[in-house]
Amino acid sequence: MLVLSGGTGTPKLLEGLRNILPEENITVVVNTAEDMWVSGNLVTPDIDTVLYLFSGKLDTSKWWGIKNDTFMTYEALRSLGHDEIMRLGDQDRATNIMRSDLLRAGRSLTEATQELARALGIRAKILPMSDDPVRTMVTTPSGKIHFQEFWVKEHGKPDVLEVVQEGIEKASIAPAVLEALEKEEHVLIGPSNPITSIGPILALQGMKELLKKKKVVVVSPMIGKEPVSGPAGKLMAARGLEVSSAGVVDCYGDILDIMILDERDAYGISALKNATCKILIADTLMKNVDKSTALARAVVDAFKC
Length: 305
Description:
It is built from 13 helices and 14 strands. The mean pLDDT is about 95.
């Protein structure tokens, strides 16, 4: 199974999938439009969350970073007057340093990610969506800022006027992703932010055309007119989309075959009763591993429909 992933909702589902599928049968294509250079090193938040999940290192109380990590370097930098946008743990920073040294040595982001996955003993295939740089920028009343500034530094509080992915027109689908898509007929789009997590993957030139040839199952990140978590509501509204599962369908277009809605999403179920894609109902609130595994089973069953 090939999974399109951001950094929070979809990793929760991946936690369930790895309980019912051999990890070597899972390929995860990860958003890189939220990547950011911090203190001389490239931080890839979504990739790292997936790496740490499959290596057993992920702090699942926060769904980012490494469990029991320390922050001595971050605090030392602050004491020197160097205030980083992102609060990086010491072990997490080691990942960033290794990745950045590989990039500086001429390796691609895909090659660097594969090297890290090998070092962490990961059997699943984890691939960046592109080896080319893409940046999600958010325009607020105070100006244009990087998504990490909007979400981490500003806690998602500013009003959002526009969301753009800079560099997306020149970015190519990573060759390893193209190879994976040639071999895999089933594609799962996880319940990640449709604008800043999944949107950049779908915006890569040729991606939607490739996905139209696959069986695509989507798990909605919405219940009613609210996202389950994160700033998706503000970002969808800025794109002129309704903040609902119906808005997610409009966002993704005609690549969808099956949409899984939460059993509590009465609005979405009603709004999509005449949808061209098939609608299935499940419990999508992954509050624990058992819930994630149950939803993963529903996803696997959906591909059999």
